[in-house]
Amino acid sequence: MAAPSPTARAEAADRLAGLATPAGALGRLGELGVWLASCQGQCPPEVPSNVRAVIFAGDHGVAAHGVSAYPAAVTPAMVRTFAAGRAGVSALAAANGVSVRVLDIAVDDDLEGIDPEVQHFKVRRSSEPLHLRNALTLAETEQALENGAIIAAQEIAAGADLLISGDMGIGNTTPATALIAASLGLPAAELTGRGTGIDDAALVAKQELIQVALDRVKEADLGPVETLAALGGADLAASTGFMVAAARAGVPVLLDGVIAVACAVMADRIEPGAAAWFAAGHRSTEPAQTLALDKLGLVPLLDLGMRLGEGSGAVAAVPVVRAAAAVLRDVALLSELAI
Question: Could you tell me which pathway this protein works in (predicted)?
Answer without folding.
Answer: Nucleoside biosynthesis; alpha-ribazole biosynthesis; alpha-ribazole from 5,6-dimethylbenzimidazole: step 1/2
